[in-house]
Amino acid sequence: MKCFLFPLLCSLLLSCAQGQPTQKNNVISYCALGDSYTICEGAGANESWPVILSKHLTDAGIKTDLVANPSRTGWTTQDLIDHELPVFDRSAADFVTLCIGVNDWVQGVDSGAFHKNLVYILDHVQNKLKHKGQLILITIPDFSVTPTGAKYAFGRDVPKGISEFNSIIVYEAKKRNLRTVDLFEVSRAMKDDRSLVALDGLHPSAKEYAIWETLILPVAKEILKK
């Protein structure tokens, strides 16, 4: 009798174990897409807000693994399409943040071309995501308030131009029922607090990136708990 029950019990236990989701299946795979504001130029690798966000989500009980951050300083929406989307595709990410557009504006890309590229990026990402709402759009900060920001204006009104691009980002987010995080207003504090600016005089410091993460975290928690 014992010889019969033991293998049967082992078989039942094995079946139950196989039916349980593994830890890997419970982890959110996160891909951060963007430019210098996502790779966090001016701060250390462990001070980047995507790294901090992953840690804080995990601490909150939403196990998150930053599987890819292909962002690069100076990259535009076209660079993201050409170089970052293939990385995103290979990452099989469940969750994405997107902050892009400042270099389009600096390099003179018009709002129509920016909008077209943004739509392409959003369509591509949402088509790959299992849950289309697990994508956060982040607005472009106002770099004009930094000590060296004016040199990249080339005689143009930076706040006005960036605000136009941000209105496109917000429009597409609302159209797709996606959440946004606004960095434009909070970034303007860099004008009066130089501790928020990196040593290069242009990019945010680790302190400023940490502030951004506090704005992104509650939105990420909300959409990932649904």
What's the helix-strand series? Answer: HHEHHEHEHHEHEHH
Number of helices: 10
What share of residues is helical? 40-55%
> Largest beta sheet, briefly?
5 strands, parallel
End-to-end C-alpha gap: 49 Å
Please tell me what the overall shape is: globular
Radius of gyration: 21 Å
- Sheet-strand content, in percent, reads 5-15%
Structural class, please? Answer: alpha/beta
Low-confidence stretches at least 5 residues in length (pLDDT < 50)?
A: 1-23
Lateral arrangement of strands in the main beta sheet: 2-1-3-4-5
Mean pLDDT: 91
Tell me the number of strands.
5
What does it look like?
It is built from 10 helices and 5 strands, in the order H-H-E-H-H-E-H-E-H-H-E-H-E-H-H. With about 230 residues, the chain is of the alpha/beta class. Helix 4 (about 50-60) crosses helix 10 (about 205-225), helix 5 (about 75-90) packs parallel to helix 7 (about 110-130) and helix 7 packs parallel to helix 8 (about 160-175). The longest helix has 19 residues, at about 205-225. It is globular, with a radius of gyration of 21 Å. Residues about 1-25 have low confidence and may be disordered.
